[in-house]
Amino acid sequence: MQNRYTGDIGDFAKYGLLRALGAGLRIGIAWYLFPDEPHNSDGGHVEYLEDPAKWRDMDPELYDRLRAIVQSDRRDVQQIEESGLFHDALFSSVPLAFRGDAKSRAKQRADWFRDVLIKLADCNVVFADPDNGLCEDRQFSTSDKAAWKRIPLSEAHVLAAGRTGVIYHHNTRRRGGHRSEIEHWLKLLGPDATALYWRRYSNRTFFVVHPTREIERRLREFGKKWAPHCKLHTLGESAR
Fold first, then answer.
1. How does pLDDT run across 37-96, given as a tens digit for each residue?
2. Lower Cβ count inside 10 Å, N or C end of the chain?
3. Is 0.85 surpassed by the pTM of this model?
4. Sign of CA pseudo-dihedral 159, 144, 42, 234
5. Radius of gyration of the chain, Cα coordinates, nearest whole angstrom
6. Is 139 contained in some domain?
7. Which range marks the domain in which residue 103 is found?
8. Lowest mean per-residue pLDDT among 102-106, 150-154, 216-220
9. Per the structure, how many domains does the chain have?
């Protein structure tokens, strides 16, 4: 996550999903906050806010609040934390630091993640919001700044242990396309994982790990209400 993305179409999808799944539960949000990178136009997908007839009915309160944040030109996660959209939520919003030598960077990341676990220990549903999404542990290096924009698989498993985890993943140009990519991560996340594939503007997937029966029901209802913008996908099913 980067502050400059606040209020874009990805935010509308992720917060709509969390509000639907977490009603009456204690939600924890781990921002995985990465410093803003103003060298490209990412985060500019706010056109949906000019088309309320198409989008607002999905979640009117969320739509109106995000529109107000974008129009105020105060696009940062603190605005979400103070918005009242998540009444009893807990947040882990310490930015991801990247400094020093390779050894100190490894400790920084470990200390940062330990702090996330402590802050969100009492949550029933935990959402991880890395800038770029999942990566396998063997591909994650704390000495590589770009890698810090991802969540290694091991962190995803630890966050979701004993509760429901929702993991953000920005789809890539992986060989085989998005269908193959989703299947790959579902296999690694476990047999009870479900993917919500978002297909508008910029493709992304939300992986729901260890859902309760009630959360599974809520996820199906969300998929129906927000169709055709998204599609549910379990292992072996088509993401198209």
1. 665 555 578 899 999 999 999 999 999 999 999 988 788 888 888 888 998 899 998 888
2. C
3. yes
4. negative
5. 17
6. yes
7. 3-233
8. 102-106
9. 1
Tell me, yes or no, whether 238 lies in a domain.
no
| CATH label of the domain that carries residue 145 | 3.40.50
Q: How far is CA 20 from CA 40, 115, 216, in A?
A: 32, 27, 11
Q: Which two tokens stand for residue 20?
A: 């639907």
Residue 40: predicted pLDDT: 53
Let me know if residue 39 belongs to a domain: yes
How many angstroms separate the CA atoms of 202 and 13, rounded?
11
> What is the per-residue DSSP string for the chain?
--GGGTTSHHHHHHHHHHHHH-TTS-EEEE-------TTS-TT---GGGG-HHHHGGG-HHHHHHHHHHHHHT--SHHHHHTSSSSTT-EEE-------S-HHHHHHHHHHHHHHHHHHTTT-SEEEE--SSEEE-GGG--TT-GGGGGEEEHHHHHHHHTTSEEEEEEE----TTHHHHHHHHHHHHH-TT-EEEEE-SSS-EEEEEES--HHHHHHHHHHHHHTTTSEEEE-TTS---
* Integer Cα distance of 209 and 215 in angstroms: 10
Query: Which residues, including other chains, have CB under 8 Å from residue 205's CB and lie 6 or more apart?
Result: 133, 169, 171, 178, 181, 182, 185, 195, 196, 197, 198
**Two tokens, residue 73:** 């030109």
Q: What are phi and psi of 203, to 5 degrees?
A: -70, 135
Q: Which residue, 222, 171, 166, 225, is CA-closest to 199?
A: 171
Distance of CA 197 to the CA centre of its chain: 12
* Residue 240 domain-assigned (yes or no): no
